[in-house]
Amino acid sequence: MSMSGIRLALRIARRDAQRTKGRSILVICLLAFPVVAIALGATLYDRFELTTEERLDRDLGTSDAAVMWQYDGLIEQEPDNQWLGGYPPQTDGPYVEPPAHVFGADPVAELTAILPAGSRVVPYSSGEGLAVKTPSGIGKIDWVAFDAADPIAEGMYEILDGKTPAAKDEVLLSSAAADRLGLDVGDSVELTEPARSLKVTGLVEDPNALKGEYMIGGAETFPGAATKFLVDAPGPISWDQVTALNAKGVVVYSRAVSLDPPTIDTPWSYVDDGASAETVSLIATVAGMVVLELVLLAGPAFAISAKRRSREYALLSANGATAAQVRRTVLSGGLVLGSIAAITGVVLGALLATIAIPFIEPMIGQRAGGIRFLIAFTGPLALLAVLTGVLAALVPAFTVARQNVIEALTGRRGVTKSRKRWVVIGISMIALGGLVGVGGAYSGTEMLLVGAAALAQFGLVMCTPAIVGAISKLGRFLPLSPRIALRDAGRNRASTSPAISAVMAVVAGAIAISAFAVAERSRYNDNFGTNLPQGTVMANVEMWPGYDQQTGATLKLPADAEQQLTEAKAATEALMRQHYPVSDIHEVVYASCVQEAGMREDCQVTAVMPPERTCPYSDQQFLTDEQMAEAVDNRYCKANTTDWAWSSADLAPGVLVADGNLLGILSNGEGQDLANAKAVLDAGGVVVQDPDYIVDGKVTVALRTTDYNSEVPKSTDLKTVTVPGYAMTTGSLRQNIFVAGPGALDGLETEQETKFLMALTSRMPTDEEEERFTAAFDTSGINHDFPGAPGEGGTLQVYVDVVKQDSGITPDTIMIWVLAGIAGVVALGATAMATGLAAAEGRKDLGTLAAVGAAPGVRRLLSLCQSGVISLLGAFLGVLAGLGAMFAVVWTLNVQFGRYYPREPLFPVEVPWPVLLVALVVIPVIAMLGAGLFTRSRLPVERRAV
Amino acid sequence: MSIKYGLLALLERGQAYGYQLRASFEESTGSTWPLNIGQVYTTLSRLERDGLVQALGENPQGQRPYEITMAGRAALATWFATPVGDTERPRDELAIKLALALSTPGVDITTVVQTQRTASVRALQEYTRLKNRATGGDDISWLLIIDAMIFRVEAEVRWLDHCEASLLRHQRTRQETSTAETEVPDQAPEAVPTSTGETTPR
Amino acid sequence: MTVLELRDVHRTHGAGEAMVHALRGVSIAVQPGELVAVMGPSGSGKSTLLNLAGGLDGPTGGEVFVEGTAISQLSRRSLAALRRRAIGYVFQDLNLLPSLTAIENVALPLELDGMSVRKARAVAAKALDDVAISELALRFPDEMSGGQQQRVAIARAVVGERRLVLADEPTGALDSQTGESVLRLLRARCDAGAAGVLVTHDARHAGWADRVIFLRDGLVVDASGPLPEAEGLLEAAS
């Protein structure tokens, strides 16, 4: 093809783009949108991914290296040692840690001696958790002992306000800490342990840790051994010098070595094996889906433009243009618009990134690096946009080039017949996708699943024209406007199907992902959730004897231990009542073995499962795959991860002693079932959840010891008692919690101790209440060790936690709404575009309608119906496809989780109603309202003199 | 066209006597060309003289049919085969009238054109009405003749439109030249509506 | 009663230098049973006149009355109602909505006017029968010939009680035989009592009218009066 041919095609394409500005801008927006998004993301990532120089400036300031004297003896390190670590050399023998280096009186001098002559050494140390007074109580902030005034610090910290401290009781305060403590330059930080006051001379910021809450003072302000030293050497510190220092046990983070690391073979160094084949194909598939979506969105615009200009192209043909030349003209349109979109997208993305960075920095707590644009990434991205443009123009190009010149010139409008071949291919692809999906599910290969989804999606896209055609036949029974809209959609299948496909694809994606997220969340809640009332404050009270430091022997609890425990409980209760909206406090009492030396460890009180109903693996800790498979199939193997107490606010397994009232709260039971249970409790019985424990209306409770030292753990029941039993059918008592009535355990020698204080609240405690409580609790001295007399000692510990299940806005919920939002925006865009195109196509028809006497509103109604047809059809197909995909994924995962023992909760099939609502109701309604709003009600032929 | 060939053509169908011929003639020309019986007999005797027809014996009703001769058939065939030449048509009075109106002082040629056109259109309307009343396809020959006249008048109307347009353009050019010569520039030529001013509802 | 009357109607497009006079003082009245042809060269204002008559366009001067109502007094909504109740349009081409079947196209003005679908279809079926194409009722325009489409258009133009039929070159895209049958239908409609306006540049088509009006440069330059029941034409033609 000649150069002039290309130029002619490009010229026609450019003129056409100018002539049909609205449509061109639409296509450009569509093609540019993902480019903007990706370019924005890539640029942001690139800006926050510091270059080595930038990182070195922030880590080392202007120094040449940071060093740490770790061991006395040879160690090895990575060349770019940014975490300042070293490792003993690998040997074949057992691991021997060399002795740690202990500094003498003057570490600086010690180091200067082994460093290159003329080096200056600046010590640096840091620590966590200094208690300070906050506006609402007591909080903790970190500290740094470092001479921030030293020129070596430049780049590490930026003084925002004020000046560096000069005296012992002066500090720099990080801006985040200043915000939290409500302090400014000139105010004082009040430390509580021990109490002292430090004057704030300035505010400071670490570009790597904007959110860090810390003070910087001199070595006298925060005394302690320096953790590392910054070295200002006369010249760069080379790798040879580093290895020489390594031989003495000093690890080095050298600027020169990091900038130009030697290639050495270290066995421990992190090997970046690059992107795996799976990741690459996953990215390729996702990129393919995005391109498909874009082609679907932009395609109709080209199709409609090609169709409207079919006469023009026919004239080209009649004047001797070959099919290839006509094709090229249409493709040039894609090229022109794609190029504009690519450039706009990349530039806009970079621009947005620049604008966004000041807002993102405080969020992620890090300053961005220097201004730069990721050409290596955005270049190919731009090319992709151009390619997408050309791809979108491809089908119209071929259709137009093949068109019948006579028909086009005489303006006959042919009926688009859906090609049977497409339907056959489409259905085959869906079927194949299904097969691949099943394969992926059984083999657990995610890649296959993604591929299956893509295949099925492509298949659906190919079937869409036929579906649209079939549905448009239903128009017969509809009122005028929807009838016309539906039939138009069918007639202009070439432009409506891609739009419907686009809506379908994005809705399907959103539904599938969010459905999975919902399932995941509810599985998480099943697993880690608790059935205690939300907002309940649980205090877990523990006391245990100490160990003798020298002999390792268990100490005896002091005589007043019980007294102290009672006091601690009372104090905790008082604090809970003071700070939380407590309505009632219950003590949750557990039965435990009577304490005898060496007995308590492996003795527990538990209900006894009749031997014939016992799971053979109940005591075993680790199961082989075969054993797991057997256990999964055994009806008596009931161990479930949901039975475990996942937080200190959760009830521990065991036998607890309670009255009917407490049973109601703990079990959540109701009605006759609860009444029966209470009756059994009152009669000195035991209430359980699992009916298998009950034999002839009775439950056996035992003192059981388990020997974990034998090959297979072996349990022995020391003593048993059989009492009336009742298995609850309502509520959510866990199967490993047994509730014994008063006196039920009299036959056993048990102790009863309060493990929990359960404070029922009238509402969910606020974060502020929690903070105030914690401040009060931490300073109350409730938690303490008690040394007591010689040979005595122990620890008393109370954990207080609020029962709070993630509800309302959690990250998952946010993600679902974001997805729904994206789906909504894309679907709206596609719908609006297709409606606009349909309107452009139907202009003549509107003229006829006007002449026949359609009221002005009919045009609006027609547009409204057209967007309704497109968005509803797309959303409906998308919901079908999405739920299908979601079921496939959930099923796949359940097949896998179903193989584990102890059993794990499976993914429930839950419909993501928000997304469904958005897809099926909100999007169509907005699209229709928008169409109604933005359509001029005046009919095109109508014109009146003023 | 002459009556001569018309009668010959009728006799080609079969022998006929005078009154029959007149009736057939009128029927096939859709009564647009009335004949009197005298014309028929005069023509017939001329044809007999030239040996193109021959008279047959009187029938019992006293009518004297004629039939076409071989020579007559040959003459008829020649007539059908020969196109009607321009010179054989009657002189176009209208054309001559317009040409004269143009050069005769005191005569407004546009009025002449409009008067003529009104008459022509009136004729068209009447022919169309005739045609509209002629129902059924048996009368095809008559319809053809009406159509012939309709098309002729249509051509005349189109010619009149053309004349009018030409005359107007001619007058305007002359006006412009004269105004230019007499140097009266503020007499702008009348605005000509262009087709862009029209909106066609489609 | 006069079905359509244009009283000294002016219509200009644009303003200032670019102002174009499409019509400058045209007065026409069309009576029931009358078919009036409007002739004239391109740009003479024929189509503007038709648009004004149909209420698709408004005059800059003068007034248009349809069945006695001055249309400049009407809202766009009432105008639309007037169009679907009183006025039938037939255009040169693209008369029909491609998404509707023949019978649905004919029923269109009735449905737009709020008649039930069932009833509208019954009326439309009758109208299609009148133009002798009831067998095409369920076809889409794409599946019909040009002449058949134009028949459907005429059926639609007269369906219901409408008394004014406006035709803009209705035979434009058709061959002369088919065109003639369309004109014959139009004529028959007018003979049955409708008032018709036929815009054409073809004198032969104008021949179907009772009166012919010549437009040039937005003015009526010539008008043939109502045709007398004269039989003397035959002599004139010999």
UniProtKB/TrEMBL annotation, chain A:
Note the superkingdom of the native organism.
Bacteria
**UniProt keyword Cell membrane, yes or no:** yes
Which parts of the sequence belong to the ABC3 transporter permease C-terminal domain?
289-402, 818-935
Q: How does it sit in the membrane?
A: Multi-pass membrane protein
Query: What keywords appear on the UniProt entry?
Result: Cell membrane, Membrane, Transmembrane, Transmembrane helix
Which subcellular locations apply to this protein?
A: Cell membrane
Pfam annotation, one family: FtsX
What sections of the protein cross the membrane? 282-304, 335-360, 380-401, 422-442, 448-471, 499-519, 814-840, 869-893, 913-934
Query: What InterPro entries does the annotation carry?
Result: ABC3_permease_C, Membrane_comp_ABC_pdt
Record's keyword annotation contains Ribosomal protein: no
Show the GO cellular component annotation of the record: plasma membrane
Supply the name of the protein.
Putative ABC transport system permease protein
Automatic annotation (TrEMBL), chain B:
Under the heading Pfam families, the entry gives: PadR (PF03551), Vir_act_alpha_C (PF10400)
State where composition is biased (Polar residues): 193-202
Q: Which GO terms describe its molecular function?
A: DNA binding
Q: Which residues form the Transcription regulator PadR C-terminal domain?
A: 91-167
* Keyword set includes Cytoplasm: no
Supply the SUPFAM superfamilies for this chain.
Winged helix' DNA-binding domain
Per its UniProt record, what InterPro entries does this chain match? Tscrpt_reg_PadR_C, Tscrpt_reg_PadR_N, WH-like_DNA-bd_sf, WH_DNA-bd_sf
Q: Where are the transmembrane segments?
A: none
In the UniProt record, does the keyword DNA-binding occur? yes
Keywords of this entry: DNA-binding
> What residue stretches are annotated with the Transcription regulator PadR N-terminal domain?
7-77
| Stretches the record annotates as Disordered | 171-202
Q: Provide the protein name.
A: DNA-binding PadR family transcriptional regulator
UniProtKB/TrEMBL annotation, chain C:
The taxonomic lineage of its organism, from the top, reads: Bacteria, Bacillati, Actinomycetota, Actinomycetes, Micromonosporales
The protein, known as: Putative ABC transport system ATP-binding protein
Q: Which residues form the ABC transporter domain?
A: 4-237
Instruction: Return the CDD domains for the record.
Output: ABC_MJ0796_LolCDE_FtsE
Q: Which Gene3D superfamilies match?
A: P-loop containing nucleotide triphosphate hydrolases
One GO CC term on file = membrane protein complex
One Pfam family this chain carries? ABC_tran
Q: Does the keyword Nucleotide-binding apply?
A: yes
